[in-house]
Amino acid sequence: MTRRLRTEPRLADADGFYEALMAAYRDLPEEAAAKLSAKLILLLANHIGEEAVVREALEIARREG
Amino acid sequence: MPTTYQNPRFDYRRCADQEPGATAHHPVVVVGAGLVGLTAAVDLASRGVATLLLDEDDTVSFGSRAICFAKRSLEIADRLGVGERIRDKGITWNRGKVFLRDREIYGFDLLPEPGHAYPAFVNLQQYYVEEWLVERAHQLGLTEIRWKNRVLEAVQESACVRLTVETPEGPYAITCDFLLACDGARSQVRRSLGLAFTGQVFQDRFLIADVVMKADFPTERWFWFDPPFHPGRSVLLHRQADDVWRIDFQLGWEADPVAEKQPERVLPRLRAMLGERRFELEWVSVYTFQCRRLERFRQGRVFFLGDAAHQVSPFGARGGNGGLQDADNLCWKLAAVLAGQAPEALLDSYDAERVPAADENILNSTRSTDFITPKSAASRAFRDAVLELSEDHAFARRLVNSGRLSLPCSYAGSPLCTPGESREESGEAALPPGSPCPDAPVLDSERTGEARSDWLLRRLGDGFTLLLALEPRTPLPAGLAALAGESPPVRPLLVSSGPRDSGGLPLLIDAEGLVAARCGLQPGAALLFRPDQHLAARWPRFDPAAVRAARDRALGIAATAEQEVFAT
Asked: How far apart are the C-alpha atoms of B460 and B444, rounded to whole Å?
């Protein structure tokens, strides 16, 4: 079974998550911030593990960018 | 100047074709006596085809150039009679390491499997191989090599190709039926025919330094990202014969290619890396690279091989190895056409089989290059993220790309292959049509008396061969000997787990069971190999009519019958 990207709300504490995300980037110069984003994407993509799901996310991100 | 190798000089000699008057005609002309051109000439000579080989220079390659010979290339070289020399002189290696700054982040082992005549990789300077191929060409006596003969122009006419050749005594003209352009990345034949050579240019420069030193580094491929001795860039270290070490420094696009070759610039880079070790500089070159190819490798009577047809970055050792497989693919076909055993349409399959192979090499080499030379701030961020994560997280190590090494190409899906039986019939391990034959140890019991150890690939030979798996007590099927008497012959080669009656046919004893395991042989199975040792077809049982049909298909014979109907 190929799963599809889930886009309905799934984070219990959305505001808390967003705050943690912002906190991770606080005070980072541009280059370091880009590397942090990259690491995050790589870690999460590997965790998802299904290439079709990640590609779907890529498409949405690029379309709405 | 190199200290470990003296380039031989081959004399220019005036030839009869240069006399004023009639234009001489040659059936096959090869342009470029480099690694690929020499391979093609020797392969054709081994099949009884005479060639004229033209080269603009009077020696073999200057500098080590292609140094990594992959297993498939070594097997091709073995068929041509120079494989053992390459293995004996070269450096066999199996392991590689990737470093980030001063730490090892990733190691690979090509897991050498016992029971093959040749290892995964042998490193050897290209000039040795070229020199031995020149010797081999002379031994076979069917190649006329004309040094200092530079092709100025190639014109395709309806019945031939017309060449203008420049020499120290002025130009002369010849014609030929078939032209093999093996004249490198800057191919004059390609330019002369006005063919587009398109692809991607990488905005980076690399310095190759060949260094002679006694070093205690292990015989491994070492690749550094951002090492302390060359911050912010990559370095590759590889060992060659004669205590010569290849060191590749990434310089960046802004580097000055002329200044960077000067010893006063090169030596400090090397000292930073090698410390107090004593070394001598052997050869230096600065290069950029491109990944591109011709749209078609066959243009009428002209065939493009090696760098003249396609170019890749050096990461992955896919340039020279790809070129050798081009020659391996084309030469038996050309020989069959010239012998009247196959229609000219067979030559189209060179395109059908080698273009996808080139695309695979270009794809892998482009991916490696994109990793080594990130093209934007975003791709640099991802690259660095991968490297940093790879220190602690196994998943990221799989993404580190310092070159994906050349593997033998399969021609699955080629029009020359006969689609096989289903997986259920042949078994999961069955070698699929299109694959190169895997090597395996065999006992050759052709002679009476005691059996001799040999290798499957060596016994497979360079014609059509039918490998037939028979149990010691199964009777010999009828109709085998008749195949060997046809034109072109299909030579039966029996494989059995133990001694048996062979009816006078060559018999290999698969004492270790590795032929059966690697080819996926069930008792009774019949496998038809092409002259380049790729599998053309396989069956669970021997059927002479099916073998003939598959051989004819591999010779492009069916396709021509259709064309003739169309033409009339």
From this structure: 12
Which of B474, B472, B528, B481 shows the shortest CA–CA distance to B504? B481
Angle at B312 between CA B225 and CA B246, to 5 degrees: 50
Q: Do B388 and A34 touch (CB under 8 A)?
A: no
Q: Are B329 and B434 within 8 A, CB to CB?
A: no
Which chain B residue's Cα is nearest to A40?
Answer: B385
Radius of gyration of chain A (CA): 14
The pLDDT value recorded for residue B475 is: 93
Provide, as residue numbers in chain B, all residues whose Cβ is less than 8 Å from the Cβ of A34: 377-378, 381
**Cis-peptide into B488, omega within 30 deg:** yes
CA dist B436 to B26, B107, B369, Å? 32, 28, 28
Q: Which of B279, B24, B4, B284 is nearest to B146 (CA)?
A: B24
B473-491 mean pLDDT = 92
Q: DSSP alpha helices (H): ranges in B394-543?
A: 394-397, 423-426, 456-460, 480-484, 514-519
- Indicate the DSSP class of residue B244: E
Backbone angles phi, psi at B266, to 5 degrees: -75, -45
Chain A residues 28-57 with CB within 8 Å of chain B: 31, 34-35, 37-39, 41-43, 46
DSSP states of B163-197 as a string? EEEE-TT--EEEEEEEEEE---TT-HHHHHTT--E
Strand runs labelled E in B365-471: 441-444, 452-455, 464-469
Q: What is the dihedral of CA B136, B137, B142, B144, to 10 degrees?
A: -160
How many angstroms away from the CA of B421 is the closest CA of chain A?
29
Contact B493, B459 (CB under 8 A): yes
pLDDT reading at B448 higher than 80: no
Please give the pLDDT value at position B107: 86
Residue of B nearest to A31 (CA): B381
* Nearest residue of chain A to residue B380 (CA atoms): A35
Instruction: Specify whether the CB–CB gap between B495 and B521 falls below 8 A.
Output: yes
C-beta of residue B149 within 8 angstroms of C-beta of residue B166: yes
Q: Is the dihedral of CA A49, B104, B101, B210 positive or negative?
A: negative
Note the pTM of the prediction, 2 decimals. 0.93
Report pLDDT for B566. 42
Nearest one of B217, B194, B145 to B294, comparing CA atoms: B194
Q: Do B385 and A46 touch (CB under 8 A)?
A: no
Helix, strand or coil, per DSSP, at residue B337: helix
Sign of CA dihedral B19, B20, B25, B26: positive
Q: How near does any CA of chain A get to the CA of B364, in Å?
A: 19
pLDDT at B530 over 60: yes
Q: How many CB atoms lie within 10 A of CB B511?
A: 15
For B182-201, how does the pLDDT look when each residue is reduced to its tens digit (9 = 90+)? 999 999 999 999 999 989 88
| Residue B365 to residue B383: CA distance in whole angstroms | 16
Q: Is B421 in CB contact (< 8 Å) with chain A?
A: no
CB B334 within 8 A of CB B44: yes
Q: Which pLDDT tens digit goes with each residue over B133-170?
A: 999 999 999 999 999 999 999 999 989 999 999 999 99
How confident is the model at residue B422, as a pLDDT? 62
Q: What is the ipTM of this complex?
A: 0.95
CA distances from B281 to B4, B210, B262, B274 (A): 11, 6, 11, 12
Distance in angstroms (rounded) separating the CA atoms of residues B304 and B326? 9
